[in-house]
Write the structure tokens for this entry.
Amino acid sequence: MIRLFRTLFVLAITLALSACQSPDTNEAAKVVGEANPINIVVTTSMITDLVSIIGQPYVSVNGLMGPNVDPHLYKASEGDVRLMTGADLVLYSGLHLEGKMVDIFEQMEKRGQNVHAVSDALAPEDLRESALFAGNHDPHIWFDVKLWEKVAKRVGEILIEYDPAHGEHYQANLESYLSQLDELDSWIFAELQRIPEQYRVLITSHDAFGYFGRRYGLEVRGLQGMSTATEAGTADVQELAAFVAERKIPSMYVEASISPRGIEAVRAAVRDRGFEVQIGGTLYGDALGSPGTNAETYIGMVRENVGLIVAGLIDKP
């Protein structure tokens, strides 16, 4: 049944792509200017932010996934397919983050469209292996600021390759942003040092913060796996509750794009063991925050998360 559904889905996407005008790979790149920007369609809000910063003012960026959207479960609409097919460039994260859209990207690449997975910027040694799925890697690369710098450089290369006439401008934007990311990276280290060593444990709804923990020296435990498509069971809840109660971790965290029910179940199970753990707040895992919030940009999102983590773990229970 699953195989039949997948076959029908691929057929539907193929028909939708065929109905759109095929890109002419021999056509010269258009003349780009502020009045004629590069039409770029991207998937996640993190990439939307990155491309907008490096490409301004010569890009028009259309992000498919808005604030607090879970990319693991996102299903592309016919409108999304039309947007991507009509774009000059399509950028997606890769590493199966957009799990339900993989077939679309494969079909577009076969048709010769200008499609890029920004995670291709990373070497195998940069990546965390999935504990559940052999050969797969953790897609949450943006939580290591140094890895995100590599992605930023790749985005700059893509823009310069498409529009070399404005190459120096893109490079200047990139260099300015890399400087901001360097400052962010140093700030994170300094802030997390304020947490007592025995409480440097981050408990979240799913395993999105592994790169963050690896880079900045936190032990990370997620109730669900790297993909939210994998649901946690009763045994997972009880195992995590036992760990939290034994270590007396002051706070756990829910995530903006995931239901808090799982973490609330862990909290209740911890209470049954005689320890009271707090919910330290809502972290941004797979998407940025809404416009007008502190987390509407990548840098703002990271700072917001770090502030909540430090506030929740800095005091002894």
